[in-house]
Amino acid sequence: MAAVRTYVHPETGEISLARVLFALSEPLRLEMVRTLAREGEVDSIDLGPDLPRSTLTHHTSLLRESGVAFVRAEGRKCMISLRAEDLDARFPGLVGTVLAGYESESADGKARGGGPEQAAGQ
């Protein structure tokens, strides 16, 4: 019988603002968090179906270790969800503000025919 995978997560009080902001600073991870906020718990593979498994594991591990996401094993699946309540308890409004700014920036970039660099005026 295969061993059950377990994951270590920081307690709510141990979640660091610097680590959360670092986790949210990468566009791919920010898109993953946006998906989690919109869809709830998903199989991690759905967060990056076109990514190499090692890349997906790296990014989901970083989200877990920073306290942004909760990961659990379900058979062969790796289910991941946003720790919205914990993050809001620790840093009220942070995730909502970051996601709103990201969506606004994405919309501006699309309206101008460019990506985030163009939306930021670069």
Automatic annotation (TrEMBL):
InterPro entries: HTH_ArsR_DNA-bd_dom, WH-like_DNA-bd_sf, WH_DNA-bd_sf. Gene3D superfamilies: Winged helix-like DNA-binding domain superfamily/Winged helix DNA-binding domain. Residues 19-96 form the HTH arsR-type domain. This is Helix-turn-helix transcriptional regulator. It comes from Nocardiopsis tropica.
